[in-house]
Design goal:
The structure is a homohexamer. The first copy, chain A, is of the alpha+beta class. Helices cover 17% and strands 33% of the residues of chain A. In chain A, the strands form 2 sheets. In chain A, strands 2-3-10-5-8 form a 5-stranded antiparallel beta sheet, with no helix packed on it. A 5-stranded antiparallel beta sheet of chain A has the order 7-6-9-4-11. The longest helix of chain A is centred in the last third of the chain and has 16 residues.
Chain lengths: 176, 176, 176, 176, 176, 176
């Protein structure tokens, strides 16, 4: 194997703002993982830049194979995660520029930019070369095909028509 | 350390039906993990019995530290899981008695008993002595304290009052 | 990779009794591992049904890459394992329906159905997608080719002709 | 923690012959593991010297948590291991001074000095700071308390009195 | 254990420039590891800010337990690492703002700010909650006590007095 | 896969002295890793013989993926390693025949034969089937291509011409 510097490099432009209008929730995650830098294979780490619009959010999600550590580059973030059953304890914090926060592997967490006027930016690192991401709303209401409304109505204790309505709008969202 | 057989044993009565009315969703999970059998420490496995009422459900959840393999002992189960972003592909299957299904580590999955008249029972094994469980609805709408309705309204693209209503009923649920 | 539900599924008929006459010792292990469910690859778990004839036995064996956790579905089992040198402590227990027992990775263990009239059934889970199994008698006396009788006579402190006689009958056994 | 060189050192005298008469099988294993060098903790390796009397043997055994790699310092060794069920293939080799052989984790293996006049010596390394060792004969016939003769008679397809006789002599052996 | 948000948080001020005059080589590493955020325990990740003076350098070093992934926040960096024996291939790259580079676990690497007028800043993540750092020059010439000059003279193929002179100045350096 | 004994065997002649004149530093490492015994794949161990000329040295180096445990077969060795920043504590010991010493994963260590008249020999085991080796002097001064003298002059606090001179002689060395 003729190893070369390019296998460990990406001109990722992590210094450049991303368009946060690509999602309805006002955020944009740029993940640099093993699919983008082949030299990361088996090495157990990846890096991301996250842009948040004013009031934008990286909505509740989990990484099935990684813990995340994050620092704020610009703006302010309201962040949190919830512990496992049966406690389901919600831990949250307001982060200012330069603060650091940890989201343990597999737990549901989010970041929200509470400022209505200014964007925010974070750098996050994840303890896997392929951490995966499962956005709760997309997964539960926007999967392809849709999860049976019977399953979700019972799980969320709502009527089926409420589930259908939620799925309809996420279905649309996923077509954009 | 004077090791003895009792450290590796539990009279868990996994043959006995559990009360599925303890939860609104009509299921009951009996997990035998390292907190119940100390000899499991560091050994990377645990076992569970799951009871389902007619139309009962083990609602969408993840195990942050374990893959699950399940077999049906009684009745029928409609099961599924959703893959990570961006595909969010929903894979599902109807399982009959004796069938086996695998839910990979960290992915959101569920089991539902589609039979309106008969209960169902499964045995599941998990690849950790302390797999953890994160029930999506409980975590997102029933955490203590509640996640800010602003976070959830944006994430699920609903109005805040819808979030408040969902949280109110899960809050009740978690007091029972 | 176009992942599909069938990759994580097997119609294994784990509810159906197996023929315990296939072995001289009166037991039959049905193991669902990565060779039977490809989706188990790298996920670190597998599942088995074990049938025991009256007085039948899953004879002393080890799993070189897995801990086992077992529960009794039908009947009664006398189970045990032996700790490493130099203690070689034998820990045993009689298990009734619904009881759970753990056999730590790599240790020699067995299960015997002490009831002369009724069969027994267990479900076991193992902490590897390919746990392996080494049955002591088959390995020591029934290998192909046979281990030199000099090696075994010294190890078991018996005469070579005793070794030859044991090997002869296991050799036969392995041809059936 | 005030770390010092002594935590990583042992005056183990691995150059000195050991007494091979301490066991009936004519061998003596000197294992340097984490109990003897505390600095090995979590580091995943240990080292051993093995002495063999003329015709002496390190009888069939497994290491539940380690692979072994061995080189012959003096004399000749006939070595082998058996693969898992269902193949139970016996792989063997005669090793001369300076040869290297590998015994994979958890498999049953042995070394025998075929020379009736000269001792043999080997150095072995194991891939765990606490590999464990399970000598088959000691475990099966010499455990404390003894495994029920019913279990062993069925497993080895012999009469109970044969089992009793084997256990009696190993019981003696373990008192010496 | 009463877990709280503070266990996963640090007001690390990673947005603030550090003093690069604390070292002769013109750099300053601010590492946020498990000693500073207890919640990182066992989670396999840590984060660092690195400041470089004009022409400053994070000199050749290794992390014994971690791979590093780095992105440039400000300025330009000339970075490189050397592969193992026998190739000892040197891979290097000039990184601009927003570029990403990976330094595989245990390999010797460095970053240098080639700009004589402007500082540079990077954020790096490491695949361990306690990655460790071994600066080659400090370790080889500045250890306490000093490594024997005989060892180093032979290793670096220089005269002992050259070694003594190098050690003298690093010894001074380590007193500052 | 038709596994055979030869996959786990090598006629490595580890009993035979190696030529210590192949390197300027007077040592010769014969490593038996997965490239030489294919059966070692994934098994996490390898073995080495090290020969030392009178006053010869295995110069400061690290193994990026392994801890090393060593015993002296012939002669005497002065050995040591240095702990990570910021302590950089140097731990050393004189080892006689039969002594055992441990070099923890990723730390810089060496062995030197202090005897001007007699050679020394050691057997070492490493906790990886492919431990890697990074000789500090070869890597820093003998890489291909050479590391920029600006990087090294600053790191070692010497003039560029000193770096150039060191590199020139290691460059020669690596051509032999």
């Amino acid at each position: 194997m003729d190893v070369k510097a390019e296998d460990f490099f990406l001109a990722a432009k992590l210094d450049m703002p991303r368009d946060t209008k690509v999602s309805k929730v006002g955020s944009n995650v740029t993940l640099i993982n093993v699919m983008r830098i082949p030299g990361l294979n088996t090495l157990g780490i990846s890096l991301a830049r996250i842009d948040y619009a004013p009031l934008g959010e990286n909505p509740p999600h989990t990484h099935p194979r990684a813990t995340e550590i994050l620092t704020v580059l610009e703006g302010t973030l309201y962040v949190g995660f919830v512990t496992s059953n049966p406690e389901n304890k919600f831990l949250s914090k307001v982060l200012n520029k330069g603060d650091v926060f940890v989201f343990p592997e597999g737990l549901i967490h989010f970041q929200l930019n509470p400022n209505p006027h200014k964007p925010a930016v974070a750098i996050a690192a994840l303890s896997s070369q392929n951490p995966g991401a499962i956005t709760i709303a997309n997964t539960v209401f926007g999967s392809k095909p849709a999860i049976s409304d019977e399953v979700l109505a019972n799980a969320f204790q709502v009527e089926k028509k409420t589930v259908d309505w939620l799925q309809a709008q996420f279905w649309e969202d996923n077509q954009n």
